[in-house]
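Troubleshooting log. The previous structure file for this entry was overwritten by mistake, so regenerating from the original sequence record. Sequence copied from the archived sheet and checked twice against the printout by T.R.
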Amino acid sequence: MNSLLEKLNVFGRSAKQRRKLRKALKAEYHSTIAGLNALQSQFSRNQSTVPNLRRSIHVLEKGLCFPDRKKIFGLKFIGPAVNLYEKALLIPEVSENELKWASDVLNKYFDAVDQEHEEINPHYTKFISLVERNPNPKKTFAPYQVKDLQAHSQNFEKSGIEELDQFHEICRGRRSNRHFKNEPVSIETLRHAITAALESPSACNRQPFDYFLATEPAMIKKICELPLGVR
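Regenerated output below.
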């Protein structure tokens, strides 16, 4: 800590300033250690299964999205991912979509690697004993195909200056509106807004969110009362 204090030129300050800064740094240090201990404790409990599963599956997703990936990859993550998936199957609170997403990505991973590899085969054998494999990859939560990403990239490259200028104009005109007219918005407009929101980025296009549309005044009033009176 003394080296840090030297960098902050503590020793060139008054005694009162040094005491105050030392106290602040000590509090920050203890807060950091307490946070790390709490995180470690969380990882050791069963309720950490779902967030850890998401992390492990997402790492595999990112590996699957690489166009020039190796035939063998993700060896550090596939074992924990399968074990966490097994635990998640026993937790009633885990949603079907969450389990489906994990299962689809694991299926995709095992299709992409050498299933007979000595470090992969035990996890593959365990996984297929847990669930039936999905034979139709078009109806899964697995990542985009690389060829699909390349097609989107080519379409963007074909965009002219006018299209880019229009996009920049939208960016410049963006505002955070906090005051609204007391007028109804058409269902068509709301659906367009939701459709646009669905195009927003999420981890490997997982889209871990739902949109609910309420138009009845009584229901809107109830919803407005939920976030501590914020309207």
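The longest helix spans residues 15-43. Archived copy saved in two places this time.
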